[in-house]
Specification:
The chain is mainly β. It has one domain: monomeric porin ompg (Porin), CATH 2.40.160. The protein contains three helices and 17 strands. The longest helix is centred in the first third of the chain and has 31 residues. The N and C termini lie far apart (49 Å).
């Protein structure tokens, strides 16, 4: 238990320190970016406003594992994740999917590739100086992971985001599930890009989360995890009627985007996901793929390649 408290506190201390550094930098930038007192020459024509145009991107990722909020959603198989995003004047719409190329079976049964999830996200973002504020909605369309498995309940979330356009781009996003699971998920993230040249850059990011459940039913979890909400688990990985209320998962990611041509980017990526508390460790292991929860992992290293076409 002390181990996870130490890891959590160390990880959060790093993020808080970087956030304070970002806030100080933002203040300095605000002072440096005050408009000059000398007006522009009268003969100089004002710059034409940038033309608003719709934007879009189509990407496809091949990853060694699908991990979402600390949970291992696939095991021993490569996943393929296509994504399509379009945006216009702050509005954005995204469709994302997950294909499991080798669905896991506790009985060693063999299943063909399965389309296990399709999510739809609608959002709006507005910029106020160095501050970004946004809100949105996500529909999670979930399918049975393999033939004969129980189909999870679809989920719906609304979310609110605040971010700073400054060093480390600190961003806080609050998600609220409004359909079946009734929980809040708080996600604090930072990121930075090192541009080596016009072709290659290094992107580093880190995030920490807190899960606050307002629904838990241990009896229903025993029948089907999809109906039991987010309970707290004991040391034997058994669901209780207590609601989960603790730090949850942290993620560290490194990506190396390579601009192959003007609109085409290839990005190898590697991530490390791990629990931020002993409660999260027990919960993540209990929700794992293996029948014996003690044999499940709670930390994962995974990665792959993403190809993106922007237009």
């Amino acid at each position: 238990m002390n181990r996870y408290i130490f890891v959590r506190n160390a990880f959060l201390s790093v993020i808080v320190t970087l956030l304070l550094l970002a806030a100080g930098t933002a203040s300095i930038l605000a002072e440096e970016q005050k408009p000059a007192a000398t007006p522009a020459p009268a003969t100089e024509a004002p710059a034409a406003p940038a033309e608003d145009k719709p934007t879009g991107s189509l990407s496809i990722s091949g990853l060694s594992k699908y991990v979402w909020r600390g949970y291992e959603n696939t095991k021993n198989s490569v996943v393929v994740q296509p994504s399509l995003t379009v945006g216009y004047k702050g509005f954005s719409a995204n469709v994302w999917g997950n294909i499991d190329t080798k669905p896991y079976s506790a009985t060693d049964a063999s299943y063909s590739s399965a389309w296990t999830e399709m999510d739809i996200t609608l959002s709006y973002t507005k910029t106020f100086g160095i501050l970004n504020a946004g809100l949105g909605y996500i529909y999670y369309g979930l399918q049975a992971p393999n033939a004969g498995a129980v189909k999870p309940l679809d989920a719906q979330e609304i979310f609110f985001t605040l971010g700073l356009n400054t060093l480390l781009t600190p961003t806080l996003t609050v998600y609220k599930e409004i359909d079946h699971y009734h929980q809040y998920y708080f996600l604090l993230g930072i990121s930075h890009t090192f541009e080596f040249n016009k072709t290659i850059s290094l992107q580093l990011s880190a995030s920490a989360s807190y899960l606050l459940s307002d629904y838990a039913d241990a009896t229903l979890y025993g029948v089907n995890a999809s109906y039991g909400g987010y309970p707290k688990f004991d040391n034997n990985y058994q669901a209780t009627n207590d609601k989960f209320n603790n730090f949850h998962d942290g993620v560290i990611t490194a990506s190396l985007p390579i601009n192959v041509v003007k609109y085409l980017t290839v990005a190898p990526t590697v991530s490390y996901s791990f629990p931020l508390s002993s409660d999260a460790k027990d919960e993540i292991k209990a929700r794992g793929k293996l029948t014996n929860a003690a044999d499940n992992d709670s930390s994962y290293v995974y990665g792959g390649l993403t190809v993106t076409l922007s237009f």
